[in-house]
Design brief:
Oligomer: single chain
Structural class: alpha/beta
Strand order of the largest sheet: 3-2-1-4-5-6-7-8
Helix content: 25-40%
Shape: elongated
Number of helices: 18
CATH topology of the largest domain: Rossmann fold
Number of domains: 2
Radius of gyration: 23 Å
Length: 399
């Protein structure tokens, strides 16, 4: 396998005496040596996300001596992150994830240049952000960014190192048509219907799992930089933590793929929110939010008043059962969003229905579904049960 780093770039990456000592265990590997360590120093890697996958990816790449790490993440550290996002510590709660990441990575290896991008990764800024980097590592948990990072990688000729995690299972691959493999769209041509696949926040994840999958992604990045071994291009590895079983699947390029196929139809980055069917209750651009119809909603204080009144209504919880077990609102009826379409017969169209979820995204999707099916006396709770915890009853766990 040929290295991503040209010989000229690698030879220009001089190592100081301190770096020679730091990377001695690399340099003494015959297949790495001084030339390989120079390739690592010359390499530039972009990681999208400083969370569960981004933590081990960036920490091990920094320790390995990758010269420049770019990290994209607009979020702040939440206490619920600490169970798996080892870049961050308890004292970092409320701090920008990128500030926290920079401090941690500088403590691991001050020789590495860290570039941070505290913005959402979108089709408007993706090309500019990714331009200086040799490869892209996808450490996100949403489909719109997965399709965006894939299309960007194909259009720019950069490898896309994919990883995903859910509960006790994870998977990893290298999507790189220029290395002879397929792209993400060859395997997953269309995103699932909104709400059908819970995110980690909705479905949960074993804390050590992103560490395992993220380390596999970092390993693939180092191999591509060094030009060693056989990459995962054309293969996908699935890991079952409960059975401790790895399974490998062969992947084939789809000649009809709209991005990397023989006659591609996607030649520029598109609106990935629209492509993935994001509802009006999810994050949108200001322009799309202004043009979208307003969904009927109430805040948690209005919900409290309704709960305290004698007026009958149905409070519908569209979260997952494990979330409902963790915390719930009084007399709420649980129907997970993924089951709602098949269980509408359980809801009386003549009853006032108030829908809630964790933060308002899933309840907005549920509300759209009910309105489409002819329900008129419906609304959803802005901010969900987390807003209830913050503003009404702090005894309800915030997660």
């Amino acid at each position: 396998m040929e290295s991503l780093i040209s010989p000229d770039r690698a030879s220009a990456a001089d190592l100081s005496a301190a770096e020679l000592q730091r990377y001695a265990r690399h340099i003494t590997i015959p297949d790495v040596g001084l030339a390989g360590q120079r390739r690592l120093k010359a390499a530039r890697v972009l990681c999208i996300g400083a969370g569960g996958l981004g933590s081990p990816v960036t920490m091990y790449l920094a320790a390995a001596g990758v010269g420049r790490l770019g990290i994209v993440d607009p979020d702040v550290v939440d206490s619920s992150n600490l169970q798996r996002q080892i870049l961050h510590h308890a004292a970092d709660v409320g701090k920008s994830k990128l500030d926290s990441a920079r401090e941690t990575l500088a403590g691991i290896n001050p020789e590495v240049e860290i570039e941070t991008y505290p913005v959402a990764f979108t089709s408007a800024n993706a090309r500019e952000i990714a331009e200086p980097y040799d490869l892209i590592i996808d450490g996100t948990d949403n489909f719109q960014t997965r399709y965006l990072s894939n299309d960007l990688a194909v259009l720019t000729g950069k490898p896309n190192l994919y990883g995903s995690i859910f509960r006790f299972e994870g998977q990893v691959s290298v999507f790189a048509p220029k290395l002879g493999g397929p792209c993400y769209r060859c395997i997953f041509p269309e995103p699932p219907e909104p709400g059908m696949v819970p995110s980690c926040a909705e479905g949960g994840v074993l804390g050590v799992l992103p560490g395992i999958v993220g380390c596999l992604q970092a390993n693939e990045a180092i191999k591509l930089i060094l030009g060693l071994g056989e990459s995962l291009a054309g293969r996908l590895v699935h890991f079952d933590a409960l059975a401790f079983r790895f399974r490998e699947f062969k992947l084939r390029r789809d000649p009809q793929c709209p991005v990397c196929g023989d006659s591609p139809t996607v030649t520029e980055l598109i609106d990935y929110d629209a492509f993935c069917g994001l509802s009006r209750g999810e994050a949108q651009s200001d322009e799309s939010a202004m043009n979208a119809p307003i969904l009927p909603e109430i805040d948690v204080h209005e919900l409290k008043q309704r709960l305290e009144s004698d007026a009958p209504f149905l409070l519908l919880d569209v979260r997952e059962p494990n979330e409902h077990d963790l915390c719930r609102l009084p007399d709420a009826v649980l129907i997970p969003l993924g089951e709602l379409a098949d269980r509408l017969h359980e809801l009386d169209p003549d009853t006032d229905i108030v829908i809630h979820c964790k933060a308002g995204g899933r309840s907005a999707k549920a509300l759209e579904l009910l309105i489409e099916r002819g329900y008129q006396k419906v609304c959803h709770v802005k901010g969900g049960i987390n807003a209830w915890s913050r503003e009404v009853d702090p005894k309800v766990p915030l997660y």
